[in-house]
User: What shape does this take?
Amino acid sequence: MQITFLGAAREVTGSCFLIETTTTRFLVDCGMFQGGREAAQRNQQAFGFDPSTIDFVLLTHAHIDHSGLLPKLTRAGFCGTIHATAATADLLQVMLPDSAHIQETQALRAQRGARGVRDARAIAAPLYTLRDADACLRQVQPHGYGRELRPHADVRCRFRDAGHILGSAILEVWVSEGERTTKLVFSGDLGQPGRVILRDPTPIAEADILFVESTYGNRLHKDLAATQEELIDVVERTLPRGNVIVPAFAVGRTQEVLYHLHHLSREGWLRDLRIFVDSPMAAEATRITRQHLELFDENAVRLAGWHALGKDLPYLNFTGSVEESIALNQIRSGAIIISASGMCTAGRIRHHLRHNLGRAECSVLITGFQAQGTLGRRLADGADQVRLFGEDIPVRAAIHTVDGLSAHADRNALLAWTAGFARPPAQTFVVHGEEMAAQALASGLRVRPGWNVTVPAAGQQVHWHGSGVPA
Assistant: This one.
């Protein structure tokens, strides 16, 4: 067996792993790189393999850094099936067309800004189009958690709940080569245990080869009580004079922020809230979320029932049109505006930042991981000034990073999940983390007897012969 790390190796985004044997070639994830101009260039590059030779894809979840290059893959010749959980399949119906719309819009904007015909021709075409996204979606096949599927004669697979976002999965994959069968486990993105809405990640007892994420491999999150106190403090101090701007991923983070605000309002900690969700995709994702209550924990199901009855509900408005979005920028105080994208790389959030970052009476609430090179990362790192729409905007608003709202497991949670294996995997690869985070988690695993741990580099190939040390 040969394993190639095509993304998410010493970085968080671009999840893509190629598994090859003498009888099959398949991918786990096919995600987009995110963070700065280099990411855009990497997304435009040709795949390092022939897509027409890939038999199938196993998808851990719907976030774009795991799924965002699937339309490009199908356009380049991949004709196989994309296997995902049922909720992930539903979310892809929203996320991939939205991503295609962004690709087309950005390409058109660049062409309009070209200085001449020659410059316009030199500008790259859209990464993919709405037509490509629609074609790709026809290849998606949904599956339930815990049910075994056989995407190939020599491969068996099972999706287990990862507790990260709706539909997120840990993959158990058994690959047969002659008389030998190797079990691969891909953690995907793991959720933080004890979080609201989703269930805890499923423990896995056995693996020959483990691929484990490390986004927060060197950091701890605040507990739920401290997180809610921080949220209450930001809202109470800001709203009398300014607005709270929340960059949030349309899938997962938006719904969790709404949960907390609704819960705190119902318990009397926050009153008279005016919440605007300015993201058509987030509105659609919230609708899909309500269709999958069977995946929620008990508290989230109860809150969803209260929401359906309209009990103790703060003012909540999902803005749809561009005109409604523009109108939000006239609000000077008292509004909580939740908008995508979560890393501030595109979308309506950039307009809200443009109108509120320069105001000392406003706050920006960073609720999730921010990749290197993104506007969100610069804000989280304390930038004094940022550039938006060709303008230099001073950062006078208070920037609050609330890691307790992250959908990712922290260091202790990652170590606890890996401790659930009955015996050490023969080989563990630490992926989905920037260099420092990945190395930190790897060090924490290596102190355990019998754990053989590697932090692979981007593009690295590993030949596996069934022993504890890859060739």
